[in-house]
Structures are given as structure tokens and as C-alpha cells.
Amino acid sequence: MTATVTQPESPVHHYLESLDDLLTGKPGRVAELRVRAMDRFVALGFPSMKNEDWHYTSVAPIATRVFGRTSSAPAAPEVDVSPMLFGSPDWPRLVFVDGWFAPELSHVAESAGVRVSTLAALLAEGDSTDLARLGTIADHDNVAFTALNTALMQDGAVIQIGAGVEVEAPIHLVYVSTRPAPLCAVFPRNLLVLERSARATVIESYAGFGEESYLTVPVTEISLGEGAQLDHIKVQNEAPGAFHVGTIQARQERDSELHSFSYAAGAELSRTNVYTILDGQGASCTMNGMYMVSGLQHVDHQTRIEHAQPNTTSREIYKGILDGHSHGVFNGKVYVRPEAQKTDGKQSNNNLLLSDHARIDTKPQLEIFADDVKCTHGATVGRLDEVALFYMKSRGLDAEQARTLLIYAFAADVLEEIPVKAVRDALESAVFARVRGEELQVAGE
After folding, report:
1. pLDDT digits over 125-140, tens only?
2. Can you tell me the distance from the alpha carbon of 59 to that of 44, in angstroms, rounded to the nearest whole number?
3. Which structural domain range is residue 152 located in?
4. 73: phi then psi, degrees, rounded to nearest 5
5. CA 257, CA 231: separation in Å to the nearest integer?
6. Is 0.90 surpassed by the pTM of this model?
7. Are 338 and 308 within 8 A, CB to CB?
8. How far apart are the first and last CA of the chain?
9. How confident is the model at residue 2 (pLDDT cuts 50, 70, 90)?
């Protein structure tokens, strides 16, 4: 499959062996895609801190360990997913346990104009036309972890919404890691296709149990046709010893709308990339997020909004709350091509440090090659306002109540942008609980 020579005990060699297993007796377009992606991963290697996009995040804990891929679905997963359903068990959902579809935990109802499949089922059919866009949106040529996922993708959701179809209930994708063996890895792959004027909401939840280390490398590709609208929410609440490196990448046609929200509170080390290209006039995106970490956690968000056509709009707000010795990273870029006149883009990143030892590295960026645009960006880093705390205590609140309310007020405006009330309420409660040092189980937290 590839002439690349690697050390027998290296993680890269192990991933090459995993690819050989996936290719056995399975020729076709997807097999060719896997081989090309693995060749790119071997050529790129794991990113280092010399890479500008990874300057503040070291992946050494991942690159120096051998994570074993789970090769089959558990026979009868004994997992209680009810705490992860945001109090809405009637939503259509696909549950994946240790990377594989668990039909007994899932709930999918057929609907006119809506096709919901699993990647593993479609791969078993051969070169399915349902997978025509697979690998055409997410960049596996230049992004190492996307290349690794493309080579080793095993299962996930393939959702296709027909032209003019509006899906009322959110479709919930639940990924649960039980780690049947230490140092296991999963590579979920989702493909979301909304045809012309379709509307839908998709929620991705990632959760884990126990203390052992494991690796999750998900990739979600999104294709939005003319006038389509997607609300996409990702909730990352992996287990404390987990490593999570995920990518969401979209391509938007004329007058389409993407509303993205990313929440990250779990994992020892996590990175979420959210990229979109506004490739049609009138296309717009709202890209919001929040991260809330403590202890020794490291959380990284990288966003990229590419304005490729005239009269496109983007709005972006990310907020971070950091305590203990945690480290947060935000790297956001708004890129405006020369032909993208009349671009309107706004980006901000605000961070609240609750500890003298917490740290944030923030780098909002604008790259503008057009001359008729309205673009702004900015970042803030601060601590709780002592004057506001004093004022609230003078009105009868104790110190803990005043602190909790100020932290919630900081987070509230971005949380209020979440379009699904059940998710919004759950994450608001999670913020309150975490500030108070309480245990609250929401999507695995």
C-alpha cells in the first residue's frame, strides 16, 4: 500500500498496520482515499510546537504512545446513555460505543427526505453513492490528524437531508468511550449533507468513563447547499485521562447558514478545529464556543472562516473560563479572498482566569485581500471584578454566591446563543455546578 519505512515499535508503524487490516479485500475509491491519507499523515508526521497552528499545544502525550484501534463493536454494551440526552430521549439519536454503532441504544425514526445511515454499514456495501462527498471537504492533505482519521475512519453517522426538507427535532450523535483496553483509539467520521433549502439541527456529544487514557480523533464534514441552514452543536466531555483531537469542516453554497457551537470541558488534552468556507454569495456563519477547564487540563480551539465570495457574513464569539493550573489556547482566523468584496466579519475571544496559575494564549487574526470589507477582531483576558464582587456582597450575597453569579454572567451571552433550549439549559447548569465544585452529569460530565 505504501513504501514508507517506519520503526517497528513506533506509533506510525502501528497505524500503518491498522490500515493494512482495513484494506484487506476492500478495493475501491474509499480504499484509495485511505491510502492517500495515510501517505499524507506519514509525510506530515505529528504536528510539533514549531508548527504555527500548534505553537501552544504539544501533542507529545499522543505522539509518544501506541493507541490500539478498536476493531469491532461490543457485543452487548452496558452503558447508561440517559444522562447524555439533555432530558430529550425522544430525539432521533445514533449511539456509538467505543467507536462502533450500538443499535440497541439508538433511536432512529424514518422520515421523508431524510436518510440516516452509519459509515460502517455504507462501507460494507462498497463504493456507495451516499459517500460521494466523503473526503472532499475535510483537508487531509495538510492537517495531520484529519489525514489519520481519513485513513483509519471506522464508523460514524452519514446524514442526508433532501431539498426543501425541514427536520424539526435535533438529530443527536452520542459517542461514548468505555475503553475495553488501555490506550485504545477511535476514529469517528461523520458526513452531513443538506441539499438546497434544507434545515436541520445536529448535536455531537463525546463522553467517557474511568481514569485510563484513550484517544478520540473525530472528523465531521458538512456540505450545505444553496439556502440550506444547519445548527451544529458539539459537546466535549471526555473522561479526565482522555485525549481528544477533533475537526469540523464545512463548505457553504449561496445563501446558506451555519450556526456552530462548540463546548469543551473534558479530557486531559483537547483540541477542536472548526473550519468553514463561505463559497457562495450571501452565505453566512455564526461560530460560537465556550471552554471551561481546571486542574492541569489543556484545551485548544482553532477556527478558520474563509470568505471566498462577495456579500458573505460571519460572527464569532468564543469564551473561556480557566481555573487551577489549566491552559487554554484560542487561534481564530478570518480570511478574506480578493474577490470577496462586501465581506462583513466580526470575531472576539474573551477569557476569565480564576486562578493565578491559569494561562491563556489567544491569537485572533484577520487576513484581508479585498478592499471593501467590514472586519473587526479582538481578545480580552481578565479576572473577576473586585469592585463588582464588593458591590454584590454589600447587597446581601455571600462571597460564593457573588463569585458564581459573576462567572455565570460572563458566560451567559455566549450560552444564550445555543439554539436548542434543552442543551442551553443543561450547559448553564453545568457552568453553575462546576463553579461551585459540584458534580453534575451532563453529556458525560
Report:
1. 887 889 999 999 999 9
2. 14
3. 70-384
4. -75, 145
5. 8
6. yes
7. no
8. 41
9. very low
Strands 114-118 and 157-161: antiparallel
Give the Cα separation of 157 and 159 in Å (integer). Answer: 6
Write down the number of H helices and E strands in the chain: 8, 22
Phi, psi of 223, rounded to the nearest 5 degrees: -120, 120
DSSP codes joined into one string, 72-95: S--SS-----GGGSTT-TTS-EEE
Distance (Å, whole) CA 403 – CA 389: 7
Would you tell me how many other CB atoms lie within 10 Å of the CB of residue 249? 20
Could you tell me the three cell numbers for 57?
499545544
Q: What's the total number of domains in the chain?
A: 2
Beta-carbon contacts of residue 60 (< 8 Å; ≥ 6 apart):
none
Same domain, 98 and 177: yes
Q: Same structural domain for residues 175 and 83?
A: yes
User: Please, what sign has the CA dihedral across residues 131, 123, 97, 113?
Assistant: positive
In angstroms, the Cα distances linking 432 to 185, 204, 342, 409 are 32, 22, 41, 11
Q: Provide the mean pLDDT of the chain.
A: 91
Lowest mean pLDDT among 99-108, 115-124, 384-393: 384-393
Pair (393, 420) in one structural domain: yes
